[in-house]
Structures
1.
Amino acid sequence: MKDGKFLTMGIETSCDETAIAILADGRTVLSNVISSQIDIFKNYGGVVPEIASRHHLENINGVLDQSLEEAGVTLDDIDLIGVTHGPGLVGALLMGVSTAKALAFAKDIPLVGAHHLMSHISANFIEYPELEPPFMALITSGGHTEIVKVSEYNKCEILGGTRDDAVGEAYDKVARVLGLGYPGGPKIDKIAKEGNPEAIHFKRVYLEKDSYDFSFSGLKTAVLNYINTEKQAGREINRADVAASFQEAVMDVITEKAVEAVKASGMKKLALAGGVAANSRLREKLAELCEKEGIQLYRPHPALCTDNGAMVACAAYYKYKNGETDGLDLDASPSLPL
């Protein structure tokens, strides 16, 4: 506690970002430090779990010190420690969980394990102080694509999810085939602005009627087949057109299903969450559809869409306010269900 404010530290190490943030009263960011490993994994074309874990170990103390310094506080001022304990890469998760438990034990601070996806949803509470449940959320990231009904701060229900590739996975794979490199999401989003989204028609996969599930493996294969066909025919491939057409096919399905879910629920509020929520076309297209349907759209700043400690601190704060805490037996749970 400092100046009458309840201070929560959030620790995030579920994949390749080492991130620690400090929040006042659950929603005000005092510091939000992120050490990314993107440049390391560009040469690998994706995250290598063992390497990610080692870099978390190397980075976490420095990130901790910087976060405390930027917030202008010490560990003695911290009232609660929240940490992502799943889902994610088990070795990476253990780095954060071990650090959180050590700090909680050394300073006798309450500890709360946060769900990674609930944390992404909670980023909206930081960006929009007026937002409260219930609302619908669209989670789009490297490993997840879900439509989630958020009924309370710590209670939600998955209405639909991916049956194969998550949207972020599809982006990475298509980017690799196009020779754009890693990470695929930002690369495709950037080059797509130079292309024609109607140049190539890729089939939109909506699955069964009234289903909120997603499937992107067929679309990914269609892009690969198109590129192979054009190469065999000796025709030049316009990468910007392919990227734009692929992205439009993805966004048509995602945005339409999300809006339909909101309309069916009658809640009139839709929140974006996850790394792909920073995609400019997704934000633009959803804004157009939501305005047309009279739905209030919540879009966190791109810095809050990627993995960060602030969202973890927020999620942990509301679990703590609900009377939920964890002991020093808290463990990493790589497949933790929402």
2.
Amino acid sequence: MGSGLTLGIETSCDETAAAVIKDGTEVLSNIVLSQIDIHQKYGGVVPEIASRHHIEAMFPVINEALAEAGVTLDDIEVIAVAYGPGLVGSLLVGVAAAKALAFATGIPLVGVNHIEGHIYANLLGGQEVKAPLVCLTVSGGHTDLLLIPRFGEYEILGRTRDDAAGEAFDKVARVLGLPYPGGPQIEKLAQGGNREAIFFPRGLLEKDNYDFSFSGLKTAALNFLNQAKQKGEEVHLPDFAASFQWAIIDVLTQKLMLAAEEHRVRQVVLSGGVAANGTFRNHVREEAGKRGMELLYPPVHLCTDNAAMIASAGYFSYLAGRRSDNALNAVANLRLGDY
């Protein structure tokens, strides 16, 4: 029997992260070094700067994760690393570090899809996840609606055709002059607003269509601000933020509920950074409850990018017999089901 310990490494965007997980579900350490303060001045992540900071931080973060877990590399059974999707320069840093450690120690290596990691974050909160289920993964770069008949198998029901939900939040927040990342800032601003004050369009709501489109909503929101400026009218920002946020939440929830009903599942699952939005979670919980369904989502600190989720997904892939060799490379546009 092995130790059941997995070292996870995550560098898909602007967080340098490492974690040690036991048996795929117990978090022994989860270190996340964020670059938010560095990128805020630019209004978003600058890929070259992100990868440079990953290089500086990678091994100190790994060492901290091992130390906090009270283990050494000799205790680790498997190394799991996110190899896509994400910023290719950032991903390469984590992949290179993981391959170097695996080569030097002989520890098995497993490449993990970052989106799959977000799904497995739901196993780290002590809740019982039961497939089949429908999962909505919503983040800055991804909006994917998935049927999961059993863990490790994914049927993609719908995905974004243009801007992801988190990307729309960030772009509109930037125009409002709000700090990066924009989603939490808009949520905070929206708390004092009326979500019915302004009607914004909902894309792709026709029947039997589970894809998403938020570019039209983003354009409508920006046009609203520009027209008000041209007319010299003052925009009540809490109402604007609440209405914009509600347009996104409304579409996400409608499609999630329709998919869950069609596939007759008893659990619906949220994952990804936008799942940290309390207004979104509360609305989905309410709608799921009306239908006799259970809503699951990760602890808030595990909704955003972290290495614990990568370690969890990697451990279960390892148990299923998957291994990666020294040819593992970063894949910026990796999709679920691609290996």
